[in-house]
Amino acid sequence: MWEENKYCIWDNKSNEGVQTRKAFKVMSNMNVWEQWMRKVTKEWKYSCEHNLSGSGVGRRSWLGWAAVAYATSVPSDITRIAWGGLSRQQQENANMIATKIIKDWESNYAKNIHR
């Protein structure tokens, strides 16, 4: 049922160079990455419920991986490599965006549970 499995998030590396460039292209454009993060929280009901409803520290990471996987079908281990190519400022911006999107998701999730 987890939507993330359809987009290769947990697959193994296959073509690291090409996949890293694909991931970096999405991640280095914060507007594009934010759009994909929002799509994940709107369209991946089961994966988000599993990965975002807890208080684990990996929620921002998972959301970033999921957004890249949704946009490109690049697995999370490649996304982690591409993350290292971002500047410190880009990483901080991405974390702030992910935190805001998670808070928005939590707010909407709580409303839907208590209906």
Explain what you see.
The longest helix has 26 residues. The protein is 71% helix and 0% strand. The chain is built from six helices and no strands. With 115 residues, it is an all-alpha fold. It has one domain.
Topology of this protein?
Blueprint: H1 16-27, H2 30-43, H3 45-52, H4 59-72, H5 76-83, H6 88-113
Strand tally is: 0
Main beta sheet strand tally, sense and closure: none
| Uncertain spans | none
The rough form would be described as: globular
Q: How large is the count of helical segments?
A: 6
Helix content: over 70%
Rg (C-alpha, Å):
14 Å
When the domains are counted, the total is 1
Mean pLDDT: 91
Strand content: under 5%
- The secondary structure category is mainly alpha
Q: Provide the succession of SSEs.
A: HHHHHH
End-to-end Cα distance: 23 Å
What brief labels describe this structure?
115 residues; mainly alpha
Quickly describe the structure.
The protein is 71% helix and 0% strand.
